[in-house]
Amino acid sequence: MAVTMAEITKLRKMTGAGMMDCKNALNEAEGDIDKAMEIIRKKGQAVAAKRSDRDASEGCVLAKADGNFAAIIALKCETDFVANNADFVKLTQDILDLAVANKCQTLDEVKALTLGNGTVQDAVTDRSGITGEKMELDGYMTVEGEYTTVYNHQGKNQLCTLVAMNKAAEAAAKGVAMQIAAMNPIAIDEDGVSEEIKNQEIAVAVEKTKAEQVQKAVEAALKKAGINPAHVDSEDHMESNMAKGWITAEDVAKAKEIIATVSAEKAANLPEAMIQNIAKGRLGKFLKEVCLLNQEDIMDGKKTVREVLKETDPELKVVAFKRFTLRAE
């Protein structure tokens, strides 16, 4: 039987599929709308399965606040062409609206919500069938507090942040949300940084400090022997600098002996207290860089975020924050 344009249009509105996909599905289903919808859904499932090993690195990231609850969600796809499509952005927004309205705490809860004639996950699968690209939900994050706000960096739907405060302060909260987008802190303050991370940073700082102290001693010894440290800082440099006539084979032999002897002696006699003090200083610098309240405010580099908030309201506090981006940093 021949299908009508009205039937095709109806199915298109219900599924978002293309005109030809709707026409073909209706023809296959002999005009049965429900069967045609199932055909389109199965097509989406087939596409999703076929492209399951593809990399969905593009997509749309959106954030929304509603009273004391705010959430971020990302709907990922393969190309920026699809990511910027109005229907794709609308689907992401519809999913986010549902998640916020239901105050979902997990991505699995979001996927199970009812959207249209199926679940949210069904809607994502259907869209995958329409576009022919792999799609997946990712990056679902939430915060709760007396006051919440969100920030979509430059309105590009690629990087979003959430902030929860202990009281309403629109301008201050928005400033914090922008700070988080720009500076990518890992915690509100030092207490939010795990001991594991602190210990890792101390260990790295100790090794770096030891290596620097040994290197300084080696360079000083080389200079004392009349050898430019930059000419012998690697085997490749030694070979190329000999070829250029900048150093002799005797210089290289002497340099290697100095490097080996001084390195061993200095490493065996490093003052532990000094190493630990320098490492602790480096940990302090790290915590200043990664703790939100310790960071220099992006709008006023002479003050920290903590100082800016205190000037706004001494009782104002950041309760929680989240950040999600599709871009590697």
Task: Please give a structural write-up.
It is elongated, with a radius of gyration of 30 Å. By secondary structure, it is of the alpha+beta class. It has a 3-stranded antiparallel sheet. Strands 6-7-10 form a 3-stranded antiparallel sheet. It is built from 13 helices and 10 strands. Helix content is 54%, strand content 18%. It folds into 3 domains: 46 residues, Orthogonal Bundle (Helicase, Ruva Protein, domain 3), CATH 1.10.8.10; 111 residues, Tetrahydropterin Synthase, Chain A (2-Layer Sandwich); 93 residues, no CATH class. Helix 1 packs across helix 2.
- Total count of helical runs of at least 4 residues: 13
What is the CATH topology of the largest domain? Tetrahydropterin Synthase, Chain A
Specify the overall morphology.
Answer: elongated
- How many structural units, i.e. domains? 3
Summarize the entry for a quick read.
This protein is an alpha+beta fold.
Task: Please render the helix and strand layout as text.
Layout: H1 5-15, H2 19-28, H3 33-50, E1 58-66, E2 69-77, H4 80-83, H5 86-101, H6 107-112, E3 114-115, E4 118-119, H7 120-131, E5 136-144, E6 147-152, E7 159-165, H8 170-183, H9 195-224, H10 235-243, H11 249-268, H12 272-290, E8 296-297, E9 300-304, H13 305-312, E10 318-325
Antiparallel strand pairs: 1-2, 2-5, 3-4, 6-7, 7-10, 8-9
